[in-house]
Amino acid sequence: MDLPPPWGHAWAGRLHEHIVDSEALTGNPLGDPHRRPVYVYTPPGYHDDPDRRYPSVYVIQGMTGQLDMWRNRKAFSPTVLESIDAWFAGEHPPAVVVYVDAWTSYGGAQFLDSPATGRYHTYLCDEVVPFVDERYRTLPGAEHRGIAGKSSGGYGAMVTPMLRPDLFGGLATHAGDALFEVCYLPEFPQAARALRDEYEGSYDAFWADFRSRPGRGRRSDPALVNEWAMAACYSADPDGTVHTATSRKLRITLAAKPAAAKPAAVADALASADDAAGPAAPKPAAAAKPGKKRRASAASVEVDVFKGKQVHTILLQEDVVLNSRLGDADGLVLREFQLAAPVVRYNVIGGKITVPAAGKMLVRDHRPPAPRGEDAAAASEGADAGAAGLGNSRGATAFQWNKALDYDQTARRATMTGGVVVVHQPDTKAPEPGSVIEPPAEAPIRLDAERVSA
Question: pTM of whole model > 0.70?
Answer without folding.
Answer: no
